[in-house]
Amino acid sequence: MENTDNQGLFLDRLRVSLRGETLFEVSTRVPPGEVLTIMGPSGSGKSTLINAIIGLLPPVFDLSGTITLDGQSLTGVPVERRRVGVLFQDPLLFPHFSVGENIAFGLPQHIRGSERRQAVERLLDAVDLEGFAARDPFTLSGGQKARVALLRVLAAEPCALLLDEPFSKLDTALRHSVRDLVFGEARRRKLPVLMVTHDAQDAEAAGGPVLNLEG
Amino acid sequence: MRSKRNGRAGSGPPADVSNRSTASPPYLLQLFSWAAIALVFVPALLGTFYMLLMAFSGGEGPLQAFTVLFQVPGIATSIGLSLWIGLVATAFSVLVTALFFAAFAHTRLISVLSGLIRPLLAIPHAAAAFGMLFLVAPSGFLMRLATPVTGFVHPPDWLLVNDSAGLSLAAGLALKEVPFLFFVVLAALPQIDRRLTVTAATLGYGRIWGFTLSAFPSLYAQIRLPIIAVIAYSTSSVDMAMILGPQLPPVLSVQILRLMNDPDLSLRTAAAAGAIVQLGVTALAIGLWLLAEKAVARLFRDLATRGIRLRADGAVRSAILIVAAWTFLVTYIGLVLLLLWSVAATWRFPDLFPSRFTLDGWTAPGSDLIELVWRSAALGIVSALAGTLMAVGALELEYRRGRVIGRGGWLSLYLPLLLPQIVFVSGLSFLFLRLGWDANFLAVAAVHLVFVFPYVYLTLAAPWHHFDNRYLDIARSLGKSPLMALVRIRLPILLAPLLTAAALGFAVSIAQYLPTLLIGAGRLPTLTTEAVALSSGGNRRLIGVYALLQAFLPFVIFALAGLIPRLVWRNRLGLVSAVREPSRQSA
């Protein structure tokens, strides 16, 4: 077993620059089950930070420093092997898949045969969406879509969760319940969570440290 | 937004952490997309080069081929006709399209009409030309309609088609070019800030005049390359010219074809010399057009500052609508006439409808007809599938490299559309003949691909670039490879535009006359080559059958392309909103 001190997401002098100009430099640690909130005005590079950690930074940017997840460096690791889940502002459910297929798309390959279907149903049951597997995602409400998007990420058994203003398009009532669900699941699964937002209430609800990105 | 999130490639300087997770795009994909571009411009350049070689090295002296060429009776007239017809057809088509959008941009009429015009893109030139022939010829439907006024009992002895000035040919070309330019403008229009025309209107300018002064200059810059392609086509079309063009002498491109097919083999070098002259004629037409552009721009700059408002343009707008609608309607009426002729047993002159019907036209050719349909469809399917596959490869490579094709890529894509077919396709046919590739199905399909690929690529590029790449980011972060993201996410979501692009490729292939005739060495006849061959005879029933089938095949494929996504995704309402209706900008 690995040393527990290694667990979580480490950013060590992570610097992103564009044509020689530094956008930001971050050094921080997000322990398992904790939410680190990154705040900053638009244009401060919040989404760029997310892209850097997922491994989708456009080539025009230059990156230095290290990203370590559970003791393993992510340097040079392709996106699909990083096991970093991400939730965007929009649920972005694949429109050509059913709700169940969307979630099954996230499930790892080692779950086989009828177990896949059962795993999907278990996940749906846990968020009060039993019987939704065959539904067209287009017919879901905003809150239902947000929940399915979360299930799809969790199905892939990520080691960290990144949230890119994930609640900003939900109305106030929904925002509370979806927020509680996301943070609750992340805590239960002991996932380090990094959230970028410009909403102070999100930061408050997260209950973790807040880092301001000034650029 | 494209290229924002698509950077996972590039080698970059080795920083202490390189975040570009994947190395450069797979070698195979690079090879694939280079092959795609090579398959387009290498044949175009090779064919042209071979023609040059033949023209200057065939015969005894370096210029002997040209001496022979200029002894062909009426050759000077042929050259003049090609230049004149090319410019007239292009000017008319551009004028009608531009005025139409000036009068009706941002109105509901555009969207209503685009549904009517879109099918016209799929109609082969030859079918449109025959339809027009049956409408306006002295014994055509219009003359029959006019008999109550004219009192004619016999078709008049007028040159309404095949006129020596080539006006009927220019009109026929416009039938295909106006719909093409309509969609080119429709695709470019969203990039023009609408507030420009609104500003002009609030300053008291009439609709047409305000649009012309405020929006048209930037619009024109966007549609210039397609217009140049229209000039190249109009100065050198072969199949339409054989059906509607002047005959004694014909336009230069048809004269070149006659020289090539002459039993006297020594005339082949003269044909090669003719191809070089054709290249010059097309270049001259483009040059004259560019000069005219400058003159018109200067004129309008001058007029713009005089304060002329032209507010009362209601009547002009109606007139424009009538002219534009007529260019769209002629083709549709032509199709109906093709159908009537294909089943007419007796259809005497002043009669509006056949007096007796027969199915002989459809049944008599029997197995020949089935073979023609089969070969036409097979060529279309092979080249459309290959073209779509290549376009997907090229677009995926662009995406992974994080940049779109540059100027050089664009020009090499457009090259086959800017060079006269008669020049490089005949060059290729001579070359293939030497290599023993003549009358080879795959060789014909490969040359069709030269024309199919650019259209498929241009059609697919817009929806591909509009795709929300975050879907792919999510798939990747869920542990899927780039290939899986392409195959499981992007391609299924883009099913409708993929099939539309493939259907367009099919239509382009069906319409090919010269490549099929020359590369097939006349031994791989299709509906198109047979229909055009019938034009010199007078068998209207057979012409009706062949031309109608030729127009019908692309219709069937387009219908399937529209139907399949609806069936496959009938339970997926989100696909309607996730993928914008592809702007089929070209044909």
Shape of chain A: globular
Q: Helix/strand/pairing class of chain B, anyone?
A: mainly alpha
Low-confidence stretches of chain A: none
Query: How many beta-strand segments of chain B?
Result: 2
Query: How many angstroms separate the termini of chain A?
Result: 38 Å
Work out the radius of gyration of chain A.
17 Å
- Total number of β-strand segments of chain A? 9
Low-confidence stretches of chain B: 1-23, 577-587
* CATH class identity of the domain at 73-358 in chain B: Mainly Alpha
The quaternary structure here is: heterodimer
At a glance:
The complex is a heterodimer of chains A (about 220) and B (about 575). Chain A is of the alpha/beta class and about 220 residues long. Chain A has helices spanning about 45-55, 100-105, 115-125, 140-155, 170-190, 200-205; strands spanning about 10-20, 20-30, 35-40, 60-70, 70-75, 85, 160-165, 195, 210.
Account of the protein in words:
The complex is a heterodimer of chains A (215) and B (587). Chain A is an alpha/beta fold and 215 residues long. Chain A has a domain of 147 residues: Rossmann fold, CATH 3.40.50.300. A 5-stranded parallel β-sheet of chain A has the order 6-7-8-3-9, with helices on both faces. A 4-stranded antiparallel β-sheet of chain A has the order 2-1-4-5, with helices on one face. In chain A, strand 1 and strand 2 form a beta hairpin. In chain A, helix 2 runs parallel beside helix 4 and helix 4 runs parallel beside helix 5. The model of chain A has no long low-confidence stretch (mean pLDDT 91). Chain B has 587 residues and is mainly alpha-helical. Chain B has a domain of 286 residues: MetI-like fold (Orthogonal Bundle), CATH 1.10.3720. Chain B has 26 helices and 2 strands. In chain B, helix 1 packs across helix 13 and helix 16 packs across helix 19. The N terminus and C terminus of chain B are likely disordered. The interface between A and B is large, with 49 and 43 residues.
